Amino acid sequence: MNVHVKPEKDGYSILIEQLNGTVSLHHDGVLLAQSDQAKVMYETRLTPTVYFPPEDVVADLSKRTELQTFCPFKGTAIYRDLILPGTSIKNATWAYNEAQDEASAIRGHIGFMPNAFTDVDFGDNEILTRDDGNISGPVIDWLLREAAYLPTPEEFTAALAAKLRDQGVYLSRMAVMVWSLHPMIAGKNFVWSKESGEVTTFAPSYEIHDHPAYQNSPLRHVSNGLGGVRHRLSGSHPTDAFPILEDLKKEGATDYVAMPLRFSDGRINVLTLTSDHPTGFSTENLGFIFECSAVIGRYYEVFMQRENAQALLETYVGKRSGARVLGGEIHRGDGDDIDAAIMFCDLRGSTLLEEELGRAEYIKVLNQFFETTSTIVHENGGEVLKFIGDAVLAVFPADSDPKAARAQALNSARTIVARLDELAQEEADHRCECAIGIAYGGVTYGNVGSQERLDFTVIGQAANIAARLGDYGKALGHPIVVSQDILDEGTHALPLGAVALHNVSKPVESFAISVP
């Protein structure tokens, strides 16, 4: 049978036709279905699919599986496994038992996945070959359907370049500069080249804005809202507008374009395209890419929003805590009870330092103190939870190795004191000293706060004891004071006795740690 009514090419469409005679389906000689009432569905972008009435399916099917999918035109599909001699095929068949009106002709009928059968006999029927495999071209179709499943901007960039080349865009190089919200990097530059077929990622620091190469570049021009850039590089066309153009011409480039990729918050990012084709880019090529640019920009915005969220969370609450928040632990009370070594590191004499140095210089000293402490804590497997005024609260989770957590905390404390002493000797105009308290115990690690404002922190007696021990050591002139449960056999420590601490019900056996 020929399908006489060809579906419209423009727009999404579904056409269901009754097949004449007997249609049968086999898997390696095993009959799966055979019917005189089979139907074929033609759907935009999809391979024609044959549906069988359920009574004509002779194969063994499992009960309904957990999988279900939704199509706005056909409804919700339910799936079953195909049971074959000695094996089975997972989710091999589907059916729309409550099909939408557009697909009512296949309501309750059963379709088979391509991997479920090896042979199909259409009898005298002729299946129409559709030529509307996309709505508005293969790149648009890919952006609408497949691109969203790519997990990284690098993979998206490589796939986009390949799709553009498949559609006749003669790309030799493509780069995307997206600006970010990160304390240390200005953004990400994803560069694809035809020669390697791979994407290289650059993460320039904020110093890029002062670099001469950026100051006189298309990136700055476009990012500052000055419009796009188009330069033909072949023949006698001048290339002195931007230095990079001459470099590209020497590499064989014939055409160069830089166009804006706008984010929803108004930031202007940059898409650059280079061609080595003798005639460069056609008007059709560039018009097509320009039409797609808003959608392409949204993909990069999604990628960067996630990177920005991760970077900001790591910056403000730490890497481990940030990962937990991104993982969905965002409700008040979310958290775990863990055993951990807690370290409280306080800058000594900060008030006097501010008076002596002035606010600006004091802030530099404070940042140096935080940087030194945080780096050493992270190098020893701990995490800085927060800065409290001029103090650092850090946690070393025990997991399955309490001894290691204690050792990490002790080693961090000793290293911090030694490093601050080195800095003091290097900078003779002031001396940066600290008081450190460490305790070990069970704490709750998670969210506390109000409904509108949460803090990811540790709550428990160990945190309180660590802070009080730091204060006690500051009063006695000991840089590191720990509770007895921090010590392991062989640790060099000066006993301080049972110390009564503020808001701690029982005295705490405490020790001063010697620093090499």
From TrEMBL:
InterPro entries: A/G_cyclase, Adenylyl/Guanylyl_Cyclase_3/4, DUF427, DUF427_sf, Nucleotide_cyclase. CDD domains: CHD (cd07302). It comes from the Bacteria. Pfam families: Guanylate_cyc, NTP_transf_9. Residues 341-470 form the Guanylate cyclase domain. This is Guanylate cyclase.
